[in-house]
Amino acid sequence: MLCSATIERVQFPYAFRLAATSSLEPTMSAARMRITRPARLREIAAAAGGDHIVAADTPHQELPGVPPGARVVFQGAPILALSPVTNNLTASARLLQHGLVRDRYFFTLPAGLWNEVRRRVGVDTFDAETTALEEELGALCGDHSGAVGLWRGRAVAYALLRRPSLPRPSRADLGVNVTQAQLDLRLDRAEERSGGLAVHARGYLGWLSLHPPFLDEHDALLEAHEKVVARWGTADFGLPVPPHAVEAAPAAEQAAFRAADARFVEFFCRWRLQGLAAPYLPIPLRPLLAGQMPPVVLQRHLQTGGLFVVPDTFPVPSRDEFRGLLDDALHSSPPDHLADWMRIIAAHNTAKQAISRFARLFELQHYWRTLQGRHAPVLRRRTTVLKEALASFLRVDENAIHRDLMEIRKRLGADWVERGTGGRLGPF
Fold first, then answer.
1. Considering only CA atoms, which of 45, 48, 3, 50 is closest in space to residue 23?
2. Cβ-based neighbour number of residue 83 at 10 Å
3. What is the pLDDT of residue 120?
4. What is the DSSP letter of 145?
5. Residues 28 and 78 in one domain
């Protein structure tokens, strides 16, 4: 016997609002579903109108409109509505109403780090509510290579905190006419090139996160436009075209957004940023190769880097010649506020290990501040075990973590973890 359902709302990881209907009418970007395979369904909560939000282990007899013996299976492509990046209803309403989450930025913790902290500090040290908050919301962001937290229940998309592990498909998976060895070589080269740019980007972010002038300007900007940020968040500033929701807002709100946007764009250009995913999570400008781009984007790149034109009638310069031309054009007269970073990346500086260390410092300071901001009473006098947990999670020696924390303290002061705490919008 068959039964149909309308997908109206999704509850992570597999949940639907089922109604007694005779046709399928998906109301989200989701694959269609029909009932063809045995399954057990567990009722999660009653919803308005007598429908039920259900998940995949509830007895089907308990569901209105589902006949006895009905069977359930998913068909088609993965349901996009299950992704925390594309859906803002993946967390339970109870957690979204929590005081640390509602109308605030909330940075989540990867399961590996949270479990390591609990194991070393003591599983029973954290109360049940805190554990549920960390585990359920942290799970929404997976390995934290693409999403790192929530803003008003929506995932904060950010791909620079953790480097994702790239899949290694076989030639049979791709259907390409090359040997597996040739495919592996191409994948290695692609990973090396993309990985190098990612390390440089994360290294710059680490330097910024330990640079007081940047942090002071960042904090002052958020404070000056707190009402606008509270209304729209930070991720929409600096876009070539304002989001549709802004254009549909009342005239006064549009004017406030444009005024704040202009200030944020100035800040982005000064510090060579593309945007701000969330407080303390800037997105740096990176090398861009394109034949065409919007004029507003071109103007920002002219202010922050340069425009280099190689006509297609000219041969590509040799590696050393091209590198020399670029270095002379970009770094001959660096701005004062970036001089320290420019010395680190200078072509004549062959010891660039500092870039990789700054990349680790960026991740370390983020998770250290997140843990201290939410669990300071529990973690008091447990600094050693917290260092051990982070060392295990980041796969470095505990002494390296100790040295990194000393470097952060040296650059930012003894009270560095207090920056940004207690704010109305979070995240700490």
1. 3
2. 18
3. 94
4. S
5. yes
Q: How far is CA 428 from CA 8, 314, 372, in A?
A: 34, 53, 8
Q: Which amino acid is at 265?
A: V
Instruction: Report the C-alpha gap between 325 and 96 in whole angstroms.
Output: 52
Both tokens of 45, joined, read 């909560």
Amino acid, res. 419: R
pLDDT at 349: 73
The residue ranking higher by pLDDT, 64 or 135, is 135
Domain count of the chain?
3
* Cα end-to-end span (Å), the chain: 52
State how far the Cα of 419 lies from the Cα of 47, in Å rounded to an integer. 41
Q: Could you tell me what percent of the chain has a pLDDT over 70?
A: 61
Q: What does the pLDDT average to over 286-308?
A: 64
pLDDT band at 427 (very low <50, low <70, confident <90, very high): confident
Last residue of a domain, one of 157, 178, 204: 157
Last residue of a domain, one of 157, 179, 201: 157
Task: For residues 127 and 118, give the distance between their C-alpha atoms in angstroms, rounded to a whole number.
Answer: 11
In the prediction, which pLDDT does 402 show? 96
Q: Where are the alpha helices (DSSP H) in 93-153?
A: 93-96, 111-121, 128-140
- Distance of CA 322 to CAs 251, 309, 310, 316, Å? 49, 12, 11, 8
- Rounded Cα–Cα distance for residues 222 and 126 (Å): 32
Containing structural domain, residue 222: 216-284
Do 18 and 54 touch, CB atoms closer than 8 A? yes
DSSP 343-392: HHH-TT----HHHHHHHHHHHHHHHHHHHHHHHHHHHTT-HHHHHHHHHH
